[in-house]
Write a structure and sequence with these properties.
It is built from eleven helices and twelve strands. The chain is α/β, with parallel strands linked by helices. It starts with a strand and ends with a helix. Its cofactor is Mg(2+); Mn(2+). It is an enzyme of class 1 (oxidoreductase).
């Protein structure tokens, strides 16, 4: 068997970023070392608020160039609340990457499996397993940093284009079919919008319906964003794939993280036609940086998403299998309820969680 080699661009980030990146890379290196089917080569690249504070540059051109050329990008927590650009906006290389690499599909899985704690009390036999897809390059974020502000008013521009929306909806239906084939969903895509009020969202829905017509074997429906927020609390097990605008997705993805028990368990990916970034949804938590108490699970789960995406893109079954294996190992640690970081009500250290996940990976191999 020929071993496939993949270059991974790594941004360790700010605050707790380096602390959760370190055990993630250790796990990924160990998994790759065991596999005859693939190898991962990591390249550490500078970017972020700490870099900006020290050098006046947040995202060097060479870092962007190398990230663009990589097979995948693994990005940790970015930003510091007290380090900002002169206009008051935050240092956000992750948003720069989305725009520069046209990563239009922000993928936010929401999963609460058997034995996992959740603020919701799930009915007997119910689990939560849906995916929120957030358009990541335009919407209300389109004019980020370029809105107009006067003494009497402030304006930002919402942009929805047919070109990006068509790609977004094609991605959403492809994911729904993939989940259906794997037995993880019924093959249903829900367009989340506010088409009853805004012409832009009526336009968004019209493009969605045109794509839905191309997939008669899949179910398509609509929901207003406010109703969706309600249903995510009342009946989240009914959802499969949700697709929405940038700002709506930004808000709903945090609600989804709340269902899982917090941002410490919330992974994400931003995916385009050629590139993809994988990162935890949470921030850099500088108040606990350097204390070895940060929850690394969202970073582990983001790395699992990366392995699965690489495997599907390059038809490498070993990568897909290892991505699922890492995800199941994190699930097993959560379900056991013994090793929990502070945000989950425990006292476990960051590296202790990493060791627990490694033990589950080893146990899974021997079963």
């Amino acid at each position: 068997m020929t071993q496939a080699e993949f270059d991974i661009a790594v941004f360790a980030g700010d605050g707790i970023g380096p602390e959760i990146t370190r055990p993630t890379l250790e796990i990924l290196r160990a998994m790759a070392a065991e596999s005859p089917a693939y190898d991962l080569r990591f390249k550490d690249l500078p970017a972020g608020a700490t870099l900006y504070r020290d050098t006046g540059e947040a995202f060097p051109a060479d870092s962007l160039s190398q990230a663009r050329a990589a097979d995948a990008i693994l990005l940790s927590a970015m930003g510091l609340p007290d380090v900002r650009y002169k206009d008051g906006t935050e240092i956000s290389p992750q948003i720069d990457l989305r725009k520069e690499l046209q990563l239009f599909a922000g993928v936010r899985p929401v999963r609460v499996s058997a034995g996992q704690a959740s603020p919701l009390t799930l009915p007997e036999g119910r689990e939560i397993d849906f995916v929120l897809i957030r358009e990541s390059t335009e919407g209300l974020f389109y004019s980020q940093g370029a809105g107009t502000v006067t003494e009497t008013e402030a304006r930002e521009t919402l942009l929805i284009t047919r070109e990006v929306s068509e790609k977004l909806f094609e991605f959403a239906f492809a994911l729904a079919r993939e989940r259906k084939d794997e037995g993880r969903g019924p093959g249903r895509v829900t367009c989340v919008d506010k088409a009853n009020v805004f012409r832009a969202f009526a336009f968004f829905r019209e493009i969605f319906d045109a794509e839905a017509a191309r997939h008669p074997d899949l179910e398509a429906n609509h929901a207003y964003v406010d109703a969706t927020a309600l249903w995510m609390v009342q009946k989240p097990w009914d959802f499969d794939v949700l697709v929405t605008e940038n700002m709506f997705g930004d808000i709903l993805s945090d609600l989804g993280a709340g269902l899982m028990g917090g941002l410490g368990l919330a992974p994400s990916a931003d995916i385009g036609l050629h590139n993809a970034v994988f990162q935890p949804c949470h921030g850099s938590a500088p108040d606990i940086a350097g204390q070895n108490v940060a929850n690394p699970m969202a970073m582990f789960l983001s790395a699992a998403m990366m392995l699965e995406w690489l495997g599907r893109k390059h038809d490498n079954a070993a990568l897909v299998a290892d991505g699922a294996r890492l995800r199941h190992a994190v699930d097993a640690v959560l379900a056991a309820g013994v090793v929990r970081t502070r945000d989950l009500g425990g006292q476990a250290a960051t590296d202790e969680v990493g060791r627990a996940v490694v033990r589950e990976l080893c146990a899974g191999k021997t079963q």
